[in-house]
Amino acid sequence: MYIKRDLEDKISKYLIKRKESLAIIGPRQAGKTTLIKHLEEELKKEKKKVKYITFEKRSDLALFNDSIEDFKDLILDYDFVFIDEFQYAKEGGQKLKYLYDTTDVKFIVSGSSALDLKYTVGKYMVGRMIDFELRTFSFREYLSHKDSKLAGLLKKRIGQKDLLNFKIKDGFGEEINRRLGVELEKFVIFGGYPAVVLSKTDQEKKVVLENILDKFLLKDIKDLLELATVDELLKLGKFLSTQIGNLISYDELSKVSTLSNLELKKHLNVLQKTFIIDLIKPYFSNKRTELVKTPEAFFIDLGLRNSLISDFRMLSNRNDAGALMENYAYIMLKHNLGDISELKYWRTKSSAEVDFILEKEQDLIPIEIKYTSKRKVGKSFFSFIEKYDPKIGIILTKDYLAEERIKNTKVKFIPLSYF
């Protein structure tokens, strides 16, 4: 069963009318191969000559690695060539550049390591490649499978508007907000890996998540780091799972994982580049009053995070509900706002803090998560408004929908489940 991905519409704009190669990167088991096979079928419907290759097939990988001229002859007559698992190629960037420069073929490559594709390949393909990131299912993609009518309402009422352009009048009433909230709270427990979403029972979801963690993610990271075991990595992952939205203490992480500071930072970098976690930096303008560059960690998929700590209880029974919803908000903001700017957090030595700060076109937009049905504005949010006088501020709620002015700032209260 194919569930339409939001990324499909973005890619389609660059698929036919532009010469550049395309790279689709993202976590293992996030649906890259499924998306590629779907794009292949769509192109074939338009009578295009398409070739699909996966470098998990050793013979095709060997041909590319050992004889690029023979590989070139093999693909020369096609309009489009999809190469899956491209990260396995040796000197892949140099060879892809050669193929790009000497053929009229449109190349679409995919891989699960940003270390290999975005950087190693990208440096050879400057001006020749456009990168796209496919993560696990967004809440809307999940909802299109679980409740197509509810997903249809969201699409009709809110459409493709991003969070910043949302108008309060487009919001829903109490019952639809309740239904959306129920589905969102299910979603944050098991996350958005396609195989998990398509599983029928909670027990099946747990088993699938364990397999994704053990057979794919840990294996990839173990190979990248050339580890004898993954014990330290698991300790690090489990500890980070309990630290969502908190400042990272390298000394504490080093003690827990038994890794040196140097090895710890190497492990954290690989966890980022293999799409397990994201690290976000603080926003600061005054180094004397605002904290130094200590990052916060968020997981890219909450099902994976909950699997690491073996906790799949529903939100109402958890003491980490606030942290879960803050992490979900981070995932949603990255998906909804794309690459328009970098998300940061704000925290001062006097303990004032705002969950996320968005910098857009030299404007600062504070975004706070208050997962409640009531109006709630924290003192720190007021402090940020007084200090920076932003044009707009956003508070993401459970189902409270409103708009008001605080000083010169238009503050929108928007349910998390809308995006």
Task: Write a compact overview of the structure shown.
With 419 residues, the protein is α/β, with parallel strands linked by helices.
Describe the protein.
The chain is an alpha/beta fold and 419 residues long. It folds into 2 domains: 128 residues, Rossmann fold, CATH 3.40.50; 279 residues, no CATH class. The chain is 45% helix and 17% strand. The protein has 17 helices and 13 strands. It has a 6-stranded mixed β-sheet, with helices on both faces. A 5-stranded parallel β-sheet has the order 2-3-4-1-5, sandwiched between helices. Strand 10, helix 17 and strand 11 form a beta-alpha-beta unit.
Features:
about 425 residues; alpha/beta; Rossmann fold; 2 domains; about 15% strand
